[in-house]
């Protein structure tokens, strides 16, 4: 699998690069049957104090689907293992859902722009993203929530034509917010 590697606050050794390549080959085997599924993959490795964060983000050719996995820990090799295992699980789950349903995926990233901090209130805001809200079913929104690994997901419900939010609750269940008005 071809991917772009980005690092922050860390110098990768040849041994680490080889280990990462070996772990990504495991994922590559999952993609072998579906070469046309993957557009591109970015891997970001950052170090903050004594904690490593590894994030793998893939853009798939299925209506702009984004698959994202992120793990943190103090041992970089262990974090790489966790990311590759979680990524493989998510990819297999997505492929299974794809085989069961021939439905379009809602997430089409239009533009990502970072902007200057203007006021004290906005000083915590570092990134702005814009997405096209296509109509999708509640089931598809929950799948996208799981694939992205986010805490919430905003979508336009195909049954009600209203904007809804699905979110992960503290007990592990999924919640739905239906906006009125």
Key descriptive features of the protein:
30% helix; 4-stranded mixed β-sheet; 181 residues
Tell me the Rg in angstroms: 18 Å
Tertiary shape: globular
Main sheet? Answer: 4 strands, mixed
What helical percentage do the residues reach? 25-40%
In short:
The protein has three helices and ten strands; from the N terminus they run E-H-E-E-E-H-E-E-E-H-E-E-E. The chain has helices spanning 14-31, 76-100, 138-148, and strands at residues 4-8, 38-48, 51-60, 66-73, 107-113, 128-133, 135-136, 152-157, 163-168, 174-178.
Any overview of this molecule?
It is a single chain. With 181 residues, the chain is an alpha+beta fold. Strand 3 and strand 4 form a beta hairpin. The longest helix is centred in the middle third of the chain and has 25 residues, at 76-100. It contains three helices and ten strands; from the N terminus they run E-H-E-E-E-H-E-E-E-H-E-E-E. It has helices at 14-31, 76-100, 138-148, and strands at residues 4-8, 38-48, 51-60, 66-73, 107-113, 128-133, 135-136, 152-157, 163-168, 174-178. The radius of gyration is 18 Å and the shape is globular. It has a four-stranded mixed β-sheet with strand order 1-2-3-4. A four-stranded mixed β-sheet has the order 7-8-9-10, covered by helices on one side.
Describe the protein's topology.
Layout: E1 4-8, H1 14-31, E2 38-48, E3 51-60, E4 66-73, H2 76-100, E5 107-113, E6 128-133, E7 135-136, H3 138-148, E8 152-157, E9 163-168, E10 174-178
Parallel strand pairs: 1-2, 7-8
Antiparallel strand pairs: 2-3, 3-4, 5-6, 8-9, 9-10
Helix pairs in contact: 1-2
């Amino acid at each position: 699998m071809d991917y772009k590697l980005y690092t922050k606050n860390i110098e990768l050794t040849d041994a680490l690069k080889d280990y990462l390549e070996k772990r990504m080959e495991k994922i590559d085997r999952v993609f072998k049957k579906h070469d046309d599924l993957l557009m591109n993959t970015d891997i970001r490795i950052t170090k903050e104090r004594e904690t490593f964060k590894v994030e793998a983000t893939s853009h798939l050719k299925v209506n702009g689907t984004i698959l994202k996995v992120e793990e943190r820990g103090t041992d970089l090799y262990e974090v790489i293992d966790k990311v590759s295992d979680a990524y493989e699980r998510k990819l297999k789950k997505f492929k299974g859902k794809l085989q069961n349903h021939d439905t379009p995926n809602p997430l089409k990233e239009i533009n990502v722009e970072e902007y200057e901090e203007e006021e004290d209130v906005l000083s915590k805001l570092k990134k702005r993203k814009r997405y096209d809200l296509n109509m999708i079913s509640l089931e598809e929104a929950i799948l996208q929530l799981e694939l992205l690994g986010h805490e919430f997901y905003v979508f336009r419900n195909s049954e009600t034509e209203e904007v809804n939010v699905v979110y992960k609750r503290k007990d592990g269940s999924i919640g739905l917010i239906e906006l009125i008005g």
